[in-house]
């Protein structure tokens, strides 16, 4: 399993990118830096995207990826909690900010297919076993345990509970 960190920051500069991880060129976790880090050919290879939560630094490139997939006449499967799916429909693919790429270029072959994840319920995603688990963060967040067919696995969380003043914890 080849894991590439495309970005690991909550801001973007000429030397930093927002949060995205790419696994074996076919599975991405969070979309803060997908289109800004990958060529169009690499975006064409992307099959599935796991979203942890709705903060901008984790979803920034979802809209641009949907445009690319539409242009490429291919589909990306997006997996997320109901909260994130509702947010994407209301604020991204709402026919005001972007067209509804869950129905374009056609209802039968959309650029984006949305899939609901439920905590502790394993799902097969792009050849991996994936299980979402709740993580303490605001807004609601899930982390993902990703296991390859060879049994290699990792756990990724896009956020954790802010601890506030760490100094008081250390005293």
Explain how this protein is built.
The protein has a single domain, classed as Metallo-beta-lactamase, Chain A (4-Layer Sandwich), CATH 3.60.15. It has six helices and ten strands. The protein is α/β, with parallel strands linked by helices and 171 residues long. The strands form two sheets. A six-stranded mixed beta sheet has the order 1-2-3-4-5-6.
How would you summarize this macromolecular structure in one to three sentences?
By secondary structure, the chain is of the alpha/beta class. It has six helices and ten strands. The strands form two sheets. Strands 1-2-3-4-5-6 form a six-stranded mixed β-sheet.
CATH topology: Metallo-beta-lactamase, Chain A
Number of helices: 6
Find the structural class using helix and strand composition: alpha/beta
> How many structural domains does the protein architecture include?
1
What is the CATH class name?
Alpha Beta
Strand content: 25-35%
Order of helices and strands: EEEHHEHHEHEEEEEH
Quick one: overall form?
Answer: globular
Number of strands: 10
Unreliable segments of 5+ consecutive residues:
165-171
Average pLDDT level? 91
CATH superfamily: Ribonuclease Z/Hydroxyacylglutathione hydrolase-like
Report the radius of gyration as a whole number of Å: 16 Å
Name given to the CATH architecture = 4-Layer Sandwich
What composes the largest sheet?
Answer: 6 strands, mixed
- Tell me the distance between the termini: 41 Å
């Amino acid at each position: 399993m080849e894991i590439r960190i495309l970005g690991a920051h909550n801001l973007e500069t000429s030397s930093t990118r927002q949060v995205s991880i790419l696994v074996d060129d076919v599975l991405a976790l969070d979309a803060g830096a997908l289109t800004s880090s990958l060529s169009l050919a690499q975006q064409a290879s992307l099959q599935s995207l796991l979203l942890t939560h709705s903060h901008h630094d984790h979803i920034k490139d979802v809209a641009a990826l949907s445009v690319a997939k539409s242009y490429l006449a291919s589909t990306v499967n997006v997996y997320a909690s109901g909260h994130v799916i509702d947010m994407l429909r209301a604020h991204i693919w709402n026919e005001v900010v972007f067209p509804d790429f869950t129905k374009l270029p056609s209802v039968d072959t959309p650029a984006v297919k949305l899939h609901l994840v439920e905590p502790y319920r394993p799902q097969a995603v792009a050849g991996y076993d994936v299980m979402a688990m709740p993580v303490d963060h605001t807004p609601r967040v899930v982390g993902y345990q990703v296991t390859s067919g060879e049994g290699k696995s990792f756990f990724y969380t896009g956020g954790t509970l802010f601890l506030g003043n760490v100094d008081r914890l250390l005293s």
